[in-house]
């Protein structure tokens, strides 16, 4: 789930430390894997996967495990800390971009491992929908790790290469964009008009669903930052081992200084927030009509 390199190793180490501690506690208690499965109401095979580090347990499963072995309060607190650390990983942009010109290849690798992504953006057009010039302007404004001329060109090329996913019919890509994001202008009105035309065009693809939240929509929720939900390989397909597929789902959140990678039960918070945001959005022909009206307004002001 992590961006790359040392961060991925650190995340894996945290999960392995949790698995080792849970395995040790069960062994010391004298409970068998079957006994633990019965106490937690899960399969014995899942107990084995948790202890091997192949499956990340939920926080309730971890605290239930601790109760089953009569762990002292101090041990329970330590297990909770390790679990929460494993569920939410933080990597500063400066660390992520150390020794590399951009992160587009790593992002594409994550995207290629999932069949369905849900992207919410309140302030900028999502990267997969950006025109080349819009993308170049966005990257040039990223001052946490300034791009040099060659790095900027490489980042734009990497972003455009990621957009091949839009034309893969076995992929599903959902977007929610606020009206403010559509109006945000990193260049000339002409640049923005070209960007709006591209969004309208991409909204006609069968595997792409674009929703726009108008500024005057009745608010039923809010989100102060953008996020992307990467759905597990079986999520939403009706196949797989019930909730265990959630271990393949995660969320990335971009903040000013770092990226958060959220896994486990906290993913559900973002699913609920996405559903509420979607209630406020326009889709299909309504979106294209909205974009056409916005374009006409911009043209009316002159280019």
UniProtKB/TrEMBL annotation:
- Span of domain HTH cro/C1-type: 22-59
Which SUPFAM superfamilies does this chain map to? lambda repressor-like DNA-binding domains
Name this polypeptide is given: Helix-turn-helix domain-containing protein
Name its species.
Actinomadura graeca
